[in-house]
Amino acid sequence: MPDRSPAFTPRPLRTARLDLLPLHPDHAAELAPVLADPALHTYIGGEPLDAPALRERYARWVAGSPEPEVVWANWALRLREAGALVGTAQVTAGPGPVAEVAWVTGTAWQGRGIATEAAKALVAEVLRQGVPAVVAHVHPEHAASVAVASAAGLRPTTRWQDGERRWERTREPAGA
Protein backbone atom coordinates (compact mmCIF):
# COMPACT_ATOMS: atom_id res chain seq x y z
CA MET A 1 0.00 0.00 0.00
CA PRO A 2 1.40 3.43 -0.83
CA ASP A 3 2.32 5.68 2.09
CA ARG A 4 -0.67 7.98 1.80
CA SER A 5 -3.96 8.54 3.55
CA PRO A 6 -6.87 6.37 2.63
CA ALA A 7 -9.98 7.91 1.12
CA PHE A 8 -11.81 7.46 4.39
CA THR A 9 -15.45 8.50 4.27
CA PRO A 10 -17.72 8.88 7.30
CA ARG A 11 -21.01 7.10 6.77
CA PRO A 12 -23.86 6.43 9.18
CA LEU A 13 -23.08 3.43 11.38
CA ARG A 14 -25.44 1.39 13.55
CA THR A 15 -24.59 -0.77 16.55
CA ALA A 16 -26.85 -2.66 18.94
CA ARG A 17 -27.82 0.55 20.77
CA LEU A 18 -26.22 3.43 18.91
CA ASP A 19 -26.58 5.36 15.71
CA LEU A 20 -23.28 6.96 14.75
CA LEU A 21 -24.34 9.92 12.66
CA PRO A 22 -21.88 11.85 10.51
CA LEU A 23 -21.27 14.97 12.60
CA HIS A 24 -23.01 18.17 11.55
CA PRO A 25 -22.65 21.64 13.08
CA ASP A 26 -26.35 21.48 14.04
CA HIS A 27 -25.48 18.73 16.54
CA ALA A 28 -23.73 21.36 18.69
CA ALA A 29 -26.94 22.63 20.31
CA GLU A 30 -27.74 19.20 21.72
CA LEU A 31 -24.15 18.16 22.47
CA ALA A 32 -23.00 21.34 24.25
CA PRO A 33 -24.83 20.50 27.52
CA VAL A 34 -23.84 16.82 27.21
CA LEU A 35 -20.15 17.79 27.05
CA ALA A 36 -20.36 20.68 29.54
CA ASP A 37 -18.95 18.95 32.64
CA PRO A 38 -15.44 20.36 33.28
CA ALA A 39 -14.43 16.99 34.78
CA LEU A 40 -14.96 15.45 31.34
CA HIS A 41 -11.96 17.44 30.12
CA THR A 42 -9.52 16.16 32.76
CA TYR A 43 -7.90 13.74 30.34
CA ILE A 44 -9.01 15.05 26.95
CA GLY A 45 -7.90 18.62 27.62
CA GLY A 46 -9.55 21.87 26.80
CA GLU A 47 -12.67 23.13 28.44
CA PRO A 48 -16.39 22.91 27.78
CA LEU A 49 -17.64 25.01 24.89
CA ASP A 50 -21.01 26.68 24.61
CA ALA A 51 -23.24 25.77 21.66
CA PRO A 52 -22.06 28.57 19.31
CA ALA A 53 -18.37 27.78 19.90
CA LEU A 54 -19.02 24.05 19.55
CA ARG A 55 -20.93 24.71 16.32
CA GLU A 56 -17.88 26.58 14.95
CA ARG A 57 -15.60 23.69 15.96
CA TYR A 58 -17.88 21.15 14.29
CA ALA A 59 -18.06 23.28 11.14
CA ARG A 60 -14.22 23.22 11.00
CA TRP A 61 -14.17 19.46 11.56
CA VAL A 62 -16.79 18.85 8.85
CA ALA A 63 -14.87 21.08 6.42
CA GLY A 64 -11.95 18.69 6.82
CA SER A 65 -8.31 18.78 7.66
CA PRO A 66 -6.22 21.59 6.19
CA GLU A 67 -3.56 18.93 5.51
CA PRO A 68 -4.40 17.16 2.23
CA GLU A 69 -2.87 13.88 3.41
CA VAL A 70 -5.11 13.78 6.51
CA VAL A 71 -8.80 12.88 6.51
CA TRP A 72 -11.14 13.76 9.40
CA ALA A 73 -14.27 11.69 9.98
CA ASN A 74 -16.52 12.59 12.91
CA TRP A 75 -19.74 11.19 14.29
CA ALA A 76 -22.35 12.19 16.85
CA LEU A 77 -23.39 9.25 19.02
CA ARG A 78 -27.15 8.84 19.39
CA LEU A 79 -28.39 6.37 21.99
CA ARG A 80 -31.58 5.12 20.32
CA GLU A 81 -33.46 4.11 23.47
CA ALA A 82 -33.02 7.61 24.91
CA GLY A 83 -33.40 9.41 21.59
CA ALA A 84 -30.47 11.58 22.68
CA LEU A 85 -26.99 12.50 21.52
CA VAL A 86 -24.57 11.25 24.18
CA GLY A 87 -21.10 11.94 22.77
CA THR A 88 -18.87 12.00 19.73
CA ALA A 89 -16.38 9.77 17.97
CA GLN A 90 -13.60 10.60 15.56
CA VAL A 91 -11.27 8.98 13.07
CA THR A 92 -8.21 10.85 11.82
CA ALA A 93 -6.83 8.92 8.86
CA GLY A 94 -3.27 9.59 7.74
CA PRO A 95 -0.75 10.67 7.02
CA GLY A 96 0.22 7.25 5.82
CA PRO A 97 -1.70 4.00 6.18
CA VAL A 98 -2.89 4.56 9.75
CA ALA A 99 -6.02 5.94 11.40
CA GLU A 100 -6.40 7.24 14.93
CA VAL A 101 -9.69 6.75 16.74
CA ALA A 102 -11.04 8.83 19.62
CA TRP A 103 -14.25 8.93 21.59
CA VAL A 104 -15.94 11.05 24.23
CA THR A 105 -19.14 10.31 26.10
CA GLY A 106 -20.92 12.85 28.25
CA THR A 107 -20.47 12.34 31.98
CA ALA A 108 -24.14 11.48 32.55
CA TRP A 109 -23.88 8.66 29.99
CA GLN A 110 -20.62 7.09 31.15
CA GLY A 111 -20.40 3.63 32.68
CA ARG A 112 -22.97 2.13 30.28
CA GLY A 113 -20.64 0.69 27.65
CA ILE A 114 -21.48 3.43 25.14
CA ALA A 115 -17.87 4.43 24.46
CA THR A 116 -16.88 0.77 24.09
CA GLU A 117 -19.68 0.15 21.60
CA ALA A 118 -18.73 3.25 19.61
CA ALA A 119 -15.00 2.45 19.66
CA LYS A 120 -15.62 -1.10 18.44
CA ALA A 121 -17.70 0.29 15.58
CA LEU A 122 -14.96 2.78 14.67
CA VAL A 123 -12.22 0.16 14.66
CA ALA A 124 -14.35 -2.18 12.54
CA GLU A 125 -15.16 0.65 10.11
CA VAL A 126 -11.53 1.69 9.78
CA LEU A 127 -10.48 -1.87 9.02
CA ARG A 128 -13.47 -2.34 6.66
CA GLN A 129 -12.39 0.70 4.68
CA GLY A 130 -8.97 -0.87 4.21
CA VAL A 131 -6.81 1.09 6.63
CA PRO A 132 -4.23 -1.42 7.91
CA ALA A 133 -3.44 0.14 11.29
CA VAL A 134 -5.70 1.66 13.94
CA VAL A 135 -4.33 3.58 16.92
CA ALA A 136 -5.60 5.51 19.91
CA HIS A 137 -3.73 7.60 22.45
CA VAL A 138 -4.95 7.08 26.01
CA HIS A 139 -3.85 8.71 29.24
CA PRO A 140 -2.58 5.90 31.50
CA GLU A 141 -4.61 7.15 34.48
CA HIS A 142 -7.87 7.24 32.53
CA ALA A 143 -8.98 3.72 33.47
CA ALA A 144 -12.26 3.94 31.58
CA SER A 145 -10.56 4.79 28.27
CA VAL A 146 -7.91 2.13 28.86
CA ALA A 147 -10.77 -0.38 29.21
CA VAL A 148 -12.47 0.96 26.06
CA ALA A 149 -9.27 0.71 24.00
CA SER A 150 -8.70 -2.84 25.19
CA ALA A 151 -12.31 -3.88 24.50
CA ALA A 152 -12.01 -2.41 20.99
CA GLY A 153 -9.14 -4.80 20.28
CA LEU A 154 -6.33 -2.27 20.63
CA ARG A 155 -3.20 -3.27 22.52
CA PRO A 156 -0.82 -0.99 24.44
CA THR A 157 2.53 -0.27 22.86
CA THR A 158 5.73 1.16 24.28
CA ARG A 159 5.20 4.41 22.34
CA TRP A 160 4.02 7.60 24.03
CA GLN A 161 2.77 10.96 22.78
CA ASP A 162 2.05 13.97 24.99
CA GLY A 163 1.86 11.79 28.11
CA GLU A 164 -0.52 9.29 26.52
CA ARG A 165 0.23 5.68 25.66
CA ARG A 166 -0.28 4.59 22.07
CA TRP A 167 -2.65 1.66 21.66
CA GLU A 168 -2.67 -0.16 18.33
CA ARG A 169 -4.36 -2.80 16.24
CA THR A 170 -3.34 -3.94 12.80
CA ARG A 171 -5.47 -5.67 10.21
CA GLU A 172 -5.13 -9.44 10.11
CA PRO A 173 -3.37 -10.63 6.96
CA ALA A 174 -5.63 -12.35 4.43
CA GLY A 175 -6.10 -16.00 5.32
CA ALA A 176 -5.05 -15.54 8.96
TrEMBL record:
Organism: Streptomyces fungicidicus
Name this polypeptide is given: GNAT family N-acetyltransferase
